[in-house]
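Bumping my old thread because nobody answered last time. Still need a sequence for this structure:
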């Protein structure tokens, strides 16, 4: 009864206060089980939701227990997200089958297979309590072969084909009421650095981007509930040289006004080197929200920084915070109720994913992921 009463009081405060900084944060979780320190942080912070990684996953039942326990800490439906793209970026492969990569699906050239991939992904995520997948990748396959974290994660080089396949994935996930997130606007394709380590710089005009890299984004702009903005600097978009995640010229002018996006904008992880090597986290978070972002991803340093960041956000103009909060609440209204978990259902779904992977490889052939085997990125090991 005490816990329930405490949660109700927190919920009443959270509902009444438009200055509650935690409502814009999606935070990581330290490990596969909850500890008192993290529970205390969640109760105090009241984050919008959580992002999980391989460090949080040791078994099927354990994972569902973890998401259920996290959900029970909050008096409102939290967002539960992860990166389940397929191939090397698939967090659930530690306890199941690795789905086909976007590159493999692109070689197969069959939207039906991609739609099936989306459906199976959505189904598996729902069994584990997730409601939001940070996928699909809308970047195009780079020509330059330099490490920029995209190897194997893209559907191809042709914008029209990428849009077609990405739409099939989004439609498949939607059949299981899982939110999709297109990424990474304004595009990592030309980047020659991995943003996990350093801030990439590109030099493409708006006209060049609209003619090529932005075409998949423009094609799906009214179908995606969320879009992720990248840590990439382009002086032709922002003469100050700010990362796109911190730039109102990119988020408000290009993404919202020029392309017409009306959904929620989520930053790429603020813990990445592209940001931390150049900005204090509290400053970066404040700049991102001011620039037009709604959700701020804080994946790894949350224990020591989340409350400071939330306090910094509460100092921003209330009208701005209320606008972001309203978008988040409209999206929250779309979150489905959790469905029952069973090992049998999960095993059946994983069997179908294995069959799909074999079919995809039969159709497209097994090829080397773009960029070869010499490049690796933290994104594949988290």
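Sorry it took so long. Here it is:
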């Amino acid at each position: 009864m005490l816990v329930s009463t405490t949660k109700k009081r927190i919920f009443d405060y959270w509902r009444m206060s438009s200055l509650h900084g935690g409502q814009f944060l999606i935070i990581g979780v330290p490990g596969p089980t909850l500890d008192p320190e993290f529970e205390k942080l969640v109760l105090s912070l009241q984050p919008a939701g959580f992002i999980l990684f391989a460090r949080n996953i040791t078994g099927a039942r354990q994972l569902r227990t973890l998401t259920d326990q996290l959900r029970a800490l909050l008096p409102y439906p939290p967002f539960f997200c992860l990166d389940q793209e397929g191939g090397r970026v698939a967090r659930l492969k530690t306890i199941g089958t690795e789905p086909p990569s976007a590159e493999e699906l692109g070689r197969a050239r069959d939207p039906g297979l991609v739609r099936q991939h989306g459906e199976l992904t959505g189904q598996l995520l729902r069994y584990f309590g997730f409601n939001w997948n940070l996928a699909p990748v809308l970047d195009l396959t780079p020509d330059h072969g330099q490490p920029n974290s995209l190897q194997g994660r893209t559907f191809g080089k042709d914008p029209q084909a990428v849009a077609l396949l990405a739409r099939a994935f989004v439609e498949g996930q939607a059949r299981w009421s899982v939110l999709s997130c297109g990424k990474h606007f304004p595009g990592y394709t030309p980047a020659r650095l991995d943003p996990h380590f350093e801030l990439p710089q590109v030099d493409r005009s708006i006209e060049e981007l609209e003619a090529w890299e932005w075409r998949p984004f423009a094609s799906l702009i009214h179908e995606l509930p969320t879009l992720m903005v990248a840590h990439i600097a382009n002086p032709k978009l922002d003469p100050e040289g700010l990362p796109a995640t911190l730039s109102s010229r990119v988020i408000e002018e290009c993404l919202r006004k020029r392309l017409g996006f009306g959904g929620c904008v989520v930053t790429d992880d603020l813990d990445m080197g592209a940001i931390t090597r150049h900005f204090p986290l509290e400053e970066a978070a404040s700049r991102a929200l001011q620039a037009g972002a709604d959700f701020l991803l804080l994946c790894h340093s949350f224990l020591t920084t989340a409350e400071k960041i939330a306090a910094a956000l509460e100092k921003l103009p209330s009208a701005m915070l209320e606008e972001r909060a309203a978008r988040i609440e409209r999206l929250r209204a779309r979150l489905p109720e959790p469905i029952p978990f069973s090992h049998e259902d999960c095993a059946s779904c994983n069997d179908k994913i294995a069959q799909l992977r074999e079919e995809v490889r039969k159709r497209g052939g097994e090829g080397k992921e773009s960029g070869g085997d010499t490049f690796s990125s933290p994104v594949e090991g988290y």
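The CA atoms of residues 248 and 290 lie 7 Å apart. Let me know if any region looks off to you.
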